[in-house]
Amino acid sequence: MSASSAATSTTATPTTTDGASSTTTLTASSSSSTALPTTQPAAPPTTNRPVSLTIGTAEAVAATSRGVLIDDGSNTWDTVVFDDSSPRGLALLVDDRIVYQPATSTDIARPVDGFVIISDEGPESLYGEDDRRVTVFDVGHVDGRAVILAQSAVDRPANPDEAASELVLIDVLSLERTVLREAGGFESGYTDARFGAGAISAIFSVNAANSLEILELGGTVRHEIELPADTNLSLLDFDESVWLLEPDFVGDNFDPVLRTLQFDLDTADVRQADLPLISVAGLSIDTGFCDVADFLDDQIVCDRSQGSPILIDVDIDGASTSEVPFITFGTVRFRASQ
C-alpha cells in the first residue's frame, strides 16, 4: 500500500499566466465554484494595512470570509492582502509571498483547480494544469528555494486505468514543477503532506487504507508506516517529529482531548499521546476535529471541521484552548518554519 518509488527528479513548465494579462480562471468543477480574477486585478485594499506590516514581516496568514488576512503576532487580523471570501480556502506564508488556494462554497468544501501567488503588490501569477487537479498542502524551502508541496492528480478520469497522481514541488517564483512521487490506481492519492526538519511527511490513501510516508526532500522513501483507516487524519510538523492528529476531540471519559501519534522523522519511532484540552472562556470543543493544524512556539492553531479556529497552548499538564481573535470562520497558518 504505497505510491511508486521516487520518480526521477524531472522538471516541467506548467501552464501559467501572468497576473497582469491573465486569461486563465481557477475554477472548480462544481457549478458553485470560486473563481479568481481573469483580468488585471484591482489593487488590494489598503485602508486596513499598517505601513509597517508587509507579507515579508507577517507571522501568520488566514483565509476568511473577510478575505486573505495577515497578522504580525498581535492577533488583530486587520490587514487585508487579497479581497476574496473563501473561508475554507488555504493561504500559506513563505518569504514575501502568499500561496492562496480558494475552495468551493458547497457544503463539502473542495479546493479549486489551481492557486494564486500574492505579493505586497497584489496577485502576481496564477497556476493551473490542464485536465489535472492541483491541491496545495504546504510551503517550505528546498535547496534555498521557496517551494510549494502539492498533489497533481488526473481530474475525473474516464476509467480506473487513467487514474494517477503525483506529489510535486512547485517553485514559488518560477512556478517550475518537480515530481517527487508518482502513484497510480483508482481511489488513491495523497490526502495531506508537510515539510519537516529535512524531510517530507505525507499520508497516502488507497481504498480507504492509509500509510504515512516519511520522505527525503528528493522523494526517496525513508520510512513507511501503516496508519488507521480513518478518513480525516491530518498532519502537524512538530520540531523533529511529525504528529498525526486523529479526527476526534472526545476522550475515553468524554473529556475533550487532542489525540496524537507522534513519529520521529529519523527513526519512525512512535509515541501515542492524548493532550487534555482545557477550555477557556466557555469555548465548546466537544465536536469536530482539526481539519488543518500548524505549530509555532509551543502553540498549535487548529482549523476545526466544525466551529471557528482555535489556539492550543501546549504544556506538560495539558493544553489550554482559546479562539483565534477576530477569526470566526476560516483557516489559519503560521509562516513556513522549514
Task: Write up what this structure looks like.
With 338 residues, the chain is mostly beta strands. It has one domain: Neuraminidase, CATH 2.120.10.80. It contains no helices and 26 strands. An 8-stranded mixed beta sheet has the order 18-19-20-21-25-24-23-22, with no helix packed on it. A hairpin with a 2-residue loop joins strand 3 (60-64) and strand 4.
Alpha carbon gyration radius = 19 Å
- Named CATH architecture: 6 Propeller
As residue ranges, the low-confidence spans are 7-47
**Order of adjacent strands in the largest pleated sheet:** 18-19-20-21-25-24-23-22
The CATH topology label is Neuraminidase
Q: What is the total number of structural domains?
A: 1
Shape: globular
What percent strand? over 45%
**Biggest sheet descriptor:** 8 strands, mixed
Helix segment tally: 0
| Alpha-beta content class | mainly beta
Relative helix content: under 10%
* Mean of residue pLDDT values: 78
Give a short synopsis of this structure.
This protein has 338 residues and is an all-beta fold. It is built from no helices and 26 strands. Strand 6 (90-94) and strand 7 (97-101) form a beta hairpin.
What labels describe this entry?
mainly beta, eight-stranded mixed sheet, 338 residues, Neuraminidase, single chain, five-stranded antiparallel sheet
List the helices and strands and how they pair.
Layout lengths: L10 E2 L3 E3 L41 E5 L2 E5 L7 E4 L7 E5 L2 E5 L13 E5 L2 E6 L4 E11 L2 E10 L9 E8 L5 E8 L3 E9 L2 E8 L2 E7 L5 E7 L6 E5 L2 E5 L11 E8 L5 E10 L10 E7 L2 E6 L5 E5 L4 E5 L6 E5 L4
Parallel strand pairs: 21-25
Antiparallel strand pairs: 1-13, 2-9, 3-4, 3-26, 4-5, 6-7, 7-8, 8-9, 10-11, 11-12, 12-13, 14-15, 15-16, 16-17, 18-19, 19-20, 20-21, 22-23, 23-24, 24-25
